[in-house]
Amino acid sequence: MGRIVVTEFVSLDGVMEDPGGSEDFKHGAWTFEIERGEEGDKFKLDETVNAEALLLGRRTYEGFAAAWPSREGEFADKFNTMPKYVVSSTLENPEWKNSTVLKGDVPEEVAKLKEEQDGDIVVHGSAQLVQTLVEHDLVDEVRLMVFPVVLGSGKRLFGETRDKKALRLTDSKTVGDGVAILIYEPAGEETKASG
Fold it and tell me: Which CATH number is 2-194's, of 3.40.50.880, 3.40.430.10, 2.30.33.40, 3.40.30.10?
């Protein structure tokens, strides 16, 4: 059984838009302005090496597919060879190696994927997809790399949900120039009852 792991770069005010600078966001590449240090780099590399598959929304997938196939190194080798699943109603023939399009009911398709795939199925970016996964309680772990900056505008990671979603902090550390790594899991019914 697979686990859905959402991993995101976010600002203090919850913005996750264009951390790498490949879009036309006015604050694009904002993560490169703050050093995450060797420990932060190791966290991202370990996360990638330990992932079994990627699950991406169409826009994030297209950005990754444009960037990673031409790159080399441990990150690129893993991204380029691992299975990739892209949620899209419009993408027909994904060209990035080992890519599969998930169409139809997103929660249903992702629940099936969790049954069929072992290990961590990692979601990068993909705000709309993440919001759908959170809404339908399909996320097993949330990893946030919170950068000490308020961007003031931009796409936020979390949108509105029908109900509150209780999470439990399972790990935290500070790396580089004050970048906080926060790892959460769903709190579960037993925590709600005892809390």
Answer: 3.40.430.10
CA–CA distance, 40 with 180 (Å, rounded to integer): 9
Q: Are 100 and 84 in contact (CB under 8 A)?
A: yes
127-to-57, 67, 130, 131, 159 alpha-carbon distances in Å? 8, 19, 5, 6, 9
Claim: this prediction has a pTM higher than 0.85: yes
Neighbours of 158 (CB within 10 A): 15
Q: For the segment 142-175, what is each residue's pLDDT rounded down to a tens digit?
A: 999 999 999 999 999 998 888 999 999 999 999 9
- pLDDT, one tens digit per residue, over 7-58 is 999 999 999 999 988 888 999 999 999 999 999 999 999 999 999 999 999 9
Copy the structure tokens of residue 167: 């999470």
- Round to whole Å and give the CA distance between 116 and 64: 24
